């Protein structure tokens, strides 16, 4: 057993080291914010911090750019994808884990191969498919492929949770005369709530930040999402890094804030065994 | 499972109701067929044709020989190898060490550290790329300015030099995704059975020895999943390279993603774009299946083994 004083000192040293590592780790984000807060005269200084700071850049970029509309594009595509993924994958997981439909395990294994497919090999065929559907520059043209790519991961997690849920509850639902749909809605879904939360948050992050397919499908500027607009601003504000980094900060902010708000529930889902495979 | 067989019994009573139950699997299957399976079959077929999609001629394996004869292809293979070999172990190591200290030695600030180290994962990759371009920039970037105080002098931007470009991009990728490895290991550490840890402690294992001889082996499922996800992640690398170097200078930092993008959408050469897509797909499937068969790796991050 270690004396209390030694434990306390060790804990302080570990915290100090973690804070120092974190300080270095945060340099890119700090640098981004710092350039966004600079006056044009300081913008090109090769320093992490400059003084004084100004909020002019933020005011200019908010005034001059349709950030609200771009944000809305991201939000529509992401929320629709998340809703579809959660609904479709939980129905599928229920059929495999609880109803044990004939052939469902074969389908499960087949769908699982999606997780081994790198997106890089899918962009060309998806682009041609969406072109044939006339879905270039539409929300649906991103939502459905994102959903198809997202369902397998969600379905693995939800299936594993449903299999671990107490069987007696499903038995009781049957005795009470619930049909399959009622059992799914009133018994299965509430039982796997932490997994649903985990899957929702993860799918939200992945969809919000997807770049490759969005770059190809969304070519009209009024359709673009927050993830693909930074390139055009880097050209627009080439001579004005203060404005560029102010707008980059604003683009990165929504998801960071959202994650900070939901991280507790996300990690809880993770620790509850969302990832036990 | 008893509930399963009970419901199955109900199911058998009515054939029409039984077939209605397939509505549960229909949406997922439809999405898979239309947006995964069909595109893969299409691209495999298209890889055997040359010319544009309008006037394509069957060409056998001509696209594949063209692609494999392109020196850029072999630059890509080398870059992807370097990418995987550096990114995956370094992320595991840093992520694992962070997870260990955060999980076992912090209490009040645990949530804070977990969240802060994960933030690069949730920061838009296009924002990250532009910030790192600025960090690496000659004259006004902070990398040159601060690294010269520790004896590292950079004459140009590391992403502007063909020799260092790929490594400079790998650093950005490691920085962005280490938080993910950390979180997977945190889940693994939090779910370690306390009896085993207590038993090890009674046997005199503590500190470094406990970490290396007890905890590391018990986190093997998480490590295997991170390896599997890391390989697939490597093969689909795109935004960082596209935004920071565009595969340059002089194609030195080209990866599969940017190569496919250029062949397919810049040059409009659907045939070789399709051949490349198939090659990437086959590499991914082969490497994944080998890991699943040999290591018993899982496709989803594994925190805890099923009892």
From TrEMBL, chain A:
Q: Which family does it belong to?
A: Belongs to the binding-protein-dependent transport system permease family.
Q: Among its keywords, does the record have Lyase?
A: no
Q: Which domain of life is it from?
A: Bacteria
Q: What CDD domains does UniProt report for this protein, alphabetically?
A: TM_PBP2 (cd06261)
Its gene name is ugpE
Keywords on this record?
Cell inner membrane, Cell membrane, Membrane, Transmembrane, Transmembrane helix, Transport
Full protein name: sn-glycerol-3-phosphate transport system permease protein UgpE
Q: Where found, per UniProt?
A: Cell inner membrane; Cell membrane
UniProtKB/TrEMBL annotation, chain B:
What InterPro entries does this protein's entry cite?
MetI-like (IPR000515), MetI-like_sf (IPR035906)
Gene3D superfamilies the UniProt entry points to: MetI-like
**What Pfam families does the database record attribute to this sequence?**
BPD_transp_1 (PF00528)
**This protein's UniProt keywords:** Cell membrane, Membrane, Transmembrane, Transmembrane helix, Transport
First-listed, main subcellular location of the protein, grouped into a coarse class: membrane
Q: Does the keyword Magnesium apply?
A: no
Top-level taxon: Bacteria
Its record classes its membrane topology as: Multi-pass membrane protein
Location(s), subcellular: Cell membrane
Residue spans crossing the bilayer: 21-41, 80-103, 115-137, 165-189, 210-235, 274-297
Stretches assigned to the ABC transmembrane type-1 domain: 77-291
Give a yes or no for keyword Zinc-finger in this entry.
Answer: no
Q: Which SUPFAM superfamilies would you find in this protein's record?
A: MetI-like
Q: Which family does it belong to?
A: Belongs to the binding-protein-dependent transport system permease family.
Q: What is this protein called?
A: ABC transporter permease
Q: Which organism is it from?
A: Mesorhizobium escarrei
